[in-house]
């Protein structure tokens, strides 16, 4: 997939705005993959334009995490201050949730309470992706604090949510963190594919061939959310946590002649 083209096309508007959206998207992708230096560079580029609601604002959220992960405390603190200013006066759970998560990442006093606030608020906001990210970073913090059992709980929830959303980069990151807690990541043989219901099997074939959840929904007359729900069940049955692993599990015979997505 040409990620840069995809994001630029979705944005519309000015060329400069499209470039900032593209860089913000690349920052998000690289944070998910754990490529924090690349995420930092992209986030800084995305936030280089005039302050505005949109790409340069949400790119600051990515900048905070990337700066923290690369050990650049001053940049993280400056980005957090920019985020706090941008969300000042907001009473919405999303804005307050991402701000609390960013404060926790930077290590402000009451870190655990901030993580809990972020998980709670983002869970209410309706943004499943950002809620899962809050659980992921909270789980990472718990693991580094030596609280493995607590970390496993948050990381399992995050991994399940990312899998259902089809966000492979973040799902892999959550799975790696989960394995680091000592949790055995169960893998099953390809024969388990036969345990899927006919609808689950068809969704798996299409997902394995590269179709997105909305594309699968159109083909099967289902909503994208229903597809997500079925995929979460598939991942549980197969003992996997990402679409990449799904493609590895499926044999040519399982695909049943499905044409790969363009």
Describe this structure in words.
This protein has 262 residues and is mostly helical. The protein folds into 3 domains: 1-72; 87-185, Serine Threonine Protein Phosphatase 5, Tetratricopeptide repeat, CATH 1.25.40; 190-255, Winged helix-like DNA-binding domain superfamily/Winged helix DNA-binding domain (Arc Repressor Mutant, subunit A), CATH 1.10.10. The chain has 15 helices and no strands. It has helices at residues 3-11, 15-33, 36-46, 55-69, 73-86, 93-106, 111-125, 128-144, 148-165, 168-180, 198-208, 213-220, 224-238, 243-249, 252-255.
Short key terms for the protein model shown above:
262 residues, mainly alpha, Arc Repressor Mutant, subunit A, 3 domains, globular
Compute the number of helices.
15
Kindly name the structural category: mainly alpha
Main sheet makeup: none
Determine the fraction of residues in helical runs and give it as a percent range: over 70%
CATH topology of the largest domain: Serine Threonine Protein Phosphatase 5, Tetratricopeptide repeat
SSE succession: HHHHHHHHHHHHHHH
CA-CA gap between termini: 9 Å
State the CATH class of the largest domain: Mainly Alpha
**How big a fraction of the residues is strand?**
under 5%
